[in-house]
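Much of our argument rests on the idea that a fold can be written as discrete symbols. The amino acid sequence and the backbone structure tokens for this protein are reproduced below:

___
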Amino acid sequence: MDTQPTLSYLALGDSYTIGEAVEQQDSFPYQLVRLLNEEGLLFKQPEVIAQTGWTTDELRDAIEARKLSQTFDLVTLLVGVNNQYRGYSIEEYKREFAMLLTTACDFAGSNKKHVFVISIPDWGVTDFGKQSGRDVQQIADEIDAFNRIKEEVAKLNGIAYIDITPISRKALADARLTASDGLHPSAEMYAEWVKEIKPIVKANLNS
């Protein structure tokens, strides 16, 4: 008799979590589950609370509205690009991200080894970014600043921080890494992320 998946995964975020402009199965949470399943960590389909355009406060409101009561074996949190895009303050981001991370830990049953913070990718390297009229170096600098805050809050709370931002910048020279909308990652880009994410997740889950 086949072993049935029993492990659960909650993915919290924005367009980069739902996989805007790619098939659901090509989003990073679904690709991650497939690879973990191949290695014997049998996960059910991810539970996803994410939407294109969400900022930290909008994600928080959506989590509260969902009223989830269960805990999960794995929780990922990737949010912040829309705070940067809208010009929200870094101080506000730090406060709201810290609150979201506490919520993520609660969803993991307070097991911090099962929570993973993922860095914000750099959208400035995409065709959309280059045609946006914004200074792409300023975009990069602001993304880096938001990510420094993100990493600081994660490490302060003993949470793994996974930096996929350098991978996202490969899209500057490789068009295959951007989806057909000229902005979001392609399935190939998400696969590159998952190569970075999976070993860290697996090590923590098995520790």
Remarks:
- Strands lie at 9-13, 47-50, 74-78, 115-118, 160-162.
- The longest helix spans residues 136-156.
